[in-house]
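Just wondering, does anyone understand what follows?

——
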Amino acid sequence: MLAGKTGAMGVLRFDEVYVRNTAMQRLVTALWLASAVALGDSGEWFLLSRHGECAPLSVLNRKNPEWGQVKDPYQFIEKMRTAGHGTDVREHDTGRGTAVQVDVPALELSLMFVGRSACREFIDHER
């Protein structure tokens, strides 16, 4: 599980490592996310639909140009957190790699990022 737990007085707990400083929390999160990328599906990332079809991450930029180009789920998480949005992140082992579910409650957004191996077919994103 990727998400840390928040304890009393805003202390963020990652397993048994406690981080109190906000800047240090971001650094630890970034390092942890970077290591997760190295362990996951190292190829190109896609957005998974409810029916198993995949779309390129470029659709995120078309939906909201302020997000800019997104290359992986961890960059998207950082953009949301930088914009002040809380995120709920869960990693799932697909048997072929890692899927990363990112929920942004304030935007009523729930996205599933997957590697190419998890896609049944691809959506024509030019439509």
Notes: DSSP finds three helices and nine strands in the chain.
